[in-house]
Each structure stands twice: as C-alpha cells, then as structure tokens.
Amino acid sequence: MRNIKMVVAYDGSRYKGFQRLRDNDMTIQGKLETVLSKMTGEEIEIIGSGRTDMGVHSHGQVVNFKTKFEDSIPKMQRYLYEYLPEDIVVKEMEEVDERFHSRYNVKTKTYLYKIDNNKFHDPFTRKYALHINKKLNLELMIEASKYLVGEHDFTSFASSKSKKKSNIREIYAINIKENKNLIEIYIEGNGFLYNMVRIIVGALIEVGLGKKKPIDIKEMLELKDRTKASETALAKGLSLYKVKY
Amino acid sequence: MRNIKMVVAYDGSRYKGFQRLRDNDMTIQGKLETVLSKMTGEEIEIIGSGRTDMGVHSHGQVVNFKTKFEDSIPKMQRYLYEYLPEDIVVKEMEEVDERFHSRYNVKTKTYLYKIDNNKFHDPFTRKYALHINKKLNLELMIEASKYLVGEHDFTSFASSKSKKKSNIREIYAINIKENKNLIEIYIEGNGFLYNMVRIIVGALIEVGLGKKKPIDIKEMLELKDRTKASETALAKGLSLYKVKY
Fold first, then answer.
1. Which residues of chain B lie closer than 8 angstroms to A87, CB-CB?
2. What is the pLDDT of residue A139?
3. pLDDT, tens digit (0-9, with 9 covering 90-100), for A6-41
4. CATH 3.30.70.660: which residues of chain A?
5. A171-230 residue pLDDT tens
C-alpha cells in the first residue's frame, strides 16, 4: 500500500467543516474522499491532522490516505485539481513512509486569525476576516498574548464542549501583525482544545478594546474555569495555517 | 444643493459592471442609486469617475451626487453601510464644492491587476486574481513595462471597441511587486482607453511567459495597430485602485 500525504487549502465558507457527516457531502473530508475514491476505484478514507469547524478555512491542512492506485503523484494531483471544487485545492502531494499518520505525528499546529479593523469592512476580506470597527490597541494585545505563551492549563480558554482528559497545552508563539488595518494573529502550539484559538482571540480582542487589561489574561489562565472563557470569535476569521511534523 | 463625494470599494464578481443598465439592478451604480434615493426621498443620479466592466472590482472608485437631503455625513454613511449589500462599501464620504465632478476633474487613475502565480490556484484569491500556473519572469515584465511609461499613442493597446478621438494617453508609473507568488501590477495614468489596462497586462504576461521580448512592447506601441493588441486579461484580476483629483 502507498501512503500519500497532501497539504490542502480550502475556503471553508460553504462547508459544514472538515469532518465527514452522514448523508452529507458538504464537508471537506467528504469532497476529498469522493474525488479520491472516483480516481482510484477504491473506497478511500483520509486522515486529517484534526478537524476544522464549520466556516473555518485552511491554508495548510494535512491529510494522508492509503491506496494501491499506481498513478504518479503529478498525475493524481492534476486529477484532483480538475475534479475538486475551486474552493478546495491540493497544494502539495507526496508519497511518504507507511508509518506517517497525519494526526498522531503532529508536532505543532499554527492557526491564523484575521481581523479587519477598518471603520467599514473591506469587501475583499469579508469572508475571511472578522470585522471590528473600533480601533484595537495592538500593543496591549501583544502584551496580553505573552501571558499565554508557554505550557499552561487552558481550561479557561476551552469550550465547555471540550472533553479532553488534560487541558494542559503548550503555546510556542503568538505573533500579531498589522498591515493597512488588517490584523493577523498567528498562534503556534503543540495542540489546541475545542474552540481554544477562537476563545484566545476573543480574549485578545477584549484587551484590544480596553474591556480587559493584559494582566486579566494571566488571571483568567490561573482561574482554570471554563465559565470564565471570553466570547468565541467567529469562525470565518480562522484558518488552520500550517501543520509541522 | 449639497454635492457629496464618496469613495466606494466593491467586489465586482456578482455585478454587470459599474454603469446602470435598463431594467436591471445588478450594477454598482444601480445599487448605489437605489439606496441613495430611498434614503433621501429624491431621485438620485450619481456620477462615477468612469465605468468599470462586468466583474471588475474597486478599491477606490469615486462618485458624487447632488442632494437637498440634510442629514449629517456620518449619519448618511451609516445608513448606506446598513442598506448596501456587503460587497459594496462606501469607505469615505464628504461634502465638496458644488463644482466638483467625479469624471471631469480626474487627474490620475491607478488600476491594480493581480496575478496568482502559484502552481495551483490559491482558493482565497480565486475571485480577485488571474491564475497563471507557469512561472512568470518578473524582471522581464518590469523591463517591458518601462517602454509603456510616458506619453504614447496606445492604439495597439486598445480594444477595437474604443471610439475615442485620440488614443494618446500618459502613463505615469507601472509598479510590479510580488509576494508569496501573488503578483500585483499597479498602473497609474491620466486616462485609459477601453480595455487598455487589461491589454497591457495581457502583453506583460506574454513577456513574463517568454512569448514576447520586452523590446516587442516598444514595437507594438510604434505600430499603432489595434489588430496587434495582446489578449485582454480576464476582468476578475482587475481593480480600480485609486482616483486622484
């Protein structure tokens, strides 16, 4: 069996999320598996690095699948490019060691959250950025983000739907940039709880708006209380940016 | 009468172009006039700095209109923001001298053309950039662009539909930038013939692909022959970027 790894970008706007649902094709996994199965004549099941929620995008989701199909990688990639909808693109494709597993072997994941901080929203990023018309204070947001970097119990930054045994995760870096009122927040970590990135962004936005102080983020962490979580920032601003192995 | 000037950004994907058509609302002008007329109770007619074709976008189209309506500018702008579709945004609005005319008073216009030069297209710019999967040679394109700067007879770079008396125009600057395989071509001039920007971009692409040499652009100019025009680059990559007065 060949083990094929792919890096997949998608505009999540139209989809119910990454994970295949019963009786429904409008998922990223569903679309990929349908085309891969048609191409190979096998029933292909893909493994993703993790799920992305409804409306969340990807610049670098990684998936792998096993197949006996013998066509060359460029030929397969060309086929996928032709038959996938234009909002799902296989950017990279390669044959990897049979032991490679997209989910188990993840070392770090980086998410990108975009905020349109123009007074009136930019029509060109309206599907890919959260619009906030009040000016955010970036310096305060950067100050607050520093409390989150490192190994912490992120219970206060997880959805109550999160059912992981341990809520301890490590964030390696948070980078916040701004260019022409488009703010980009990159968060790299070894793993994320359910809604964790969107709740972190929600908290940073509160800091940027002056509703919370940077030091409050430190307190939130220490409380380890999910009822203390900030509002979850909208899905459309979020993208799975990069997965490292 | 008050004379109101507005800077309007729009995603042209859904529209039949800027100019109002009979019996059809799917134009930028049509949408703006409908909302403005509803707001003021008057029959508002707007003047644009010029037309944009079907599918062409705008970061900085300028329009003006006359009205007796007395609401403050911020109140009007808020109203427009609420009632216009989300792909048309009035970014700036101000009251100007009664003699100001959006079309007659134009000093320069800048157009932006975007090319996605990734091997496989980026799903996030698919509606706003022309995808070319073969690597373009930017240095050659920049060299070629220099022949176009200055005052020239642009007959060879105009659609045969162009019916202007004179085909002499001046291009002040062409700037070509690249970032992560997204190429941006900015063209500033005192005026443009019908399809001129898209034909110039078409010619620069031929140079970038090695189908034409930079010097061929100089020859094309000198021929003053509209049958020599390069292919017109697709509308979706084009945006009216800025209008100066």
1. 123, 126
2. 98
3. 999 999 999 999 999 876 679 999 999 999 999 999
4. 108-244
5. 999 999 999 999 999 999 999 999 999 999 999 999 999 999 999 999 999 999 888 778
Hey, of A11, A81, A91, A124, which one would you mutate to test binding to chain B, going by the most B CBs within 10 A of its CB?
A124
Contact A9 B124 (CB under 8 A): yes
**CATH 3.30.70.580 placement within chain B:** 2-96
Catalogue the active-site residues of B.
53
In the chain, the amino acid numbered B108 is T
Ranges of H-type helices in B116-195: 138-148
What's residue A160's pLDDT? Answer: 74
Rg (chain B; Cα; Å):
19
Chain B positions touching A59 (Cβ under 8 A) are 124
Query: Is A111 known to sit in a ligand binding site?
Result: yes
ipTM of the complex: 0.91
Nearest of A140, A238, A226 to residue A186 by alpha carbon: A238
The minimum CA-CA distance between B91 and chain A, rounded to whole Å, is 6
Cβ neighbours for B2, distance < 8 A, ≥ 6 positions apart? B66, B67, B68, B69, B95
Instruction: Please state which CATH number belongs to domain A2-96.
Output: 3.30.70.580
The whole-chain average pLDDT of chain B stands at: 95
Catalytic residue among A11, A23, A25, A53: A53
Active site residue A122: no
pLDDT at B114 over 90: yes
pLDDT tier at B162 (50, 70, 90 boundaries)?
A: low
Q: Which tokens belong to B188?
A: 């500033």
The predicted structure's pLDDT at residue A231? 87
For B9, the closest of A11, A59, A123 (CB atoms) is A123
Instruction: Look up the CATH number of domain B108-244.
Output: 3.30.70.660
Look at residues B110, B102, B92, B117 and name the one whose alpha carbon lies nearest to residue B64: B102
Residue of A nearest to B87 (CA): A123
Q: Which amino acid is at A74?
A: P
Locate the DSSP E strands across A108-202: 108-116, 130-131, 150-153, 168-179, 182-189
